[in-house]
Amino acid sequence: MKEVSIDELKRRFQEKIDKDIKIEPKDWMPDDYRQTLIRQISQHAHSEIVGMLPEGNWITRAPNLRRKAVLLAKVQDEAGHGLYLYSAAETLGADREETIDDLHTGKAKYSSIFNYPTLTWADMGAIGWLVDGAAIMNQVPLCRCSYGPYARAMVRVCKEESFHQRQGFEIMTTLAKGTPEQKAMAQDALNRFWWPALMMFGPNDADSKHTEQSMRWKIKRHTNDELRQQFVDVTVPQAEMIGLTVPDKDMKFNEATGHYEHGPINWDEFWEVVKGNGPCNKDRIDVRRSAKEKGEWVREAANAYAEKRARRKSA
Ligand code: 3HC
């Protein structure tokens, strides 16, 4: 059979992308497409798993059984999202153990937002409302990502994110309409999580090293700034509706464009947190390392059982 050149393979690949034909695990793909997907999907998975920690901190301290049950369900959902995404990364040839070790050694990133402490119950509301709200903005377009397994994983994830965002906004609404102390607690949580939530979308497009290529490959369907703007336009009216104030003295609505214009983001803070110097970075990774060590016996038992079943089958 006639050898097909790499350039021809790349041309055919991009033609499929341009025609919105999904790329599947067994399809030919440029190695840098594969590598950027492994990078993004594995870091997305890490974000889900590390994202369980700030909220897990409040499961035993939820104000009532209903809130505890809802928070427990949400944290369990995040674990499932992480496993879904680790599996999607494996379809690209990523090794699960190596992927998780990359998180523990600091080689791989996870979302900056999870390096902030959760100090009050209102933070559970702010995280659901703002963090999962931002995650929805970013993950809905990923349902149309060019890589099939990632796009399909996102469909399931987004259905659950909507519940996460609604329960968070309900907590904030309840507190904002409660006693003055409860409203103050909700406002304090908004003050502490607003700017880190805007940072979740990544650096400005001009400073994003991956956006241009990821848009060409239809991994990203919108840029970081476009999604951030969508989030701000939706969330500022929600805050106003429940009587809370977004902590941005420069925030204003531009009648001509129909968009809110927010003040400058502290990108020094963002990059410090991404580099590992946030309030909780060390604690989060220590907990994940400890979980892996304590879970060693479970993996050993599961492997022993799998090997015994395999031996029985081949006997
Ligand atoms: N936190 C940590 N690192 C970040 C970041 C953030 N908020 N935003 C960007 N970065 C990193 C990027 O990973 C990249 O570093 P790398 O090359 O070492 O990976 C660098 O900063 C440059 O940023 P780019 O914008 O060029 O990188 P991307 O094109 O990958 O865009 C992204 C960043 C928008 C986060 C994109 O990776 C993405 O859409 N990922 C999938 C969604 C995701 O991971 N969301 C995180 C939250 S998940 C969540 O909240 C779950 C909820 O249920 C709790």
Description of the structure:
The mean pLDDT is 97. The chain has 315 residues and is mostly helical. It has a two-stranded antiparallel sheet. It is built from twelve helices and two strands; from the N terminus they run αααααααααββααα. The chain has helices at 6-18, 31-56, 65-90, 96-105, 122-142, 148-176, 180-199, 211-216, 224-241, 267-277, 281-294, 296-314, and strands spanning 252-254, 259-261. β1 (252-254) and β2 form a beta hairpin.
Compact description:
With 315 residues, this protein is an all-alpha fold. It has 12 helices and 2 strands; from the N terminus they run αααααααααββααα.
Descriptive tags:
single chain, 315 residues, mainly alpha, two-stranded antiparallel sheet, 12 helices, 2% strand, globular, binds 3-hydroxybutanoyl-coenzyme A
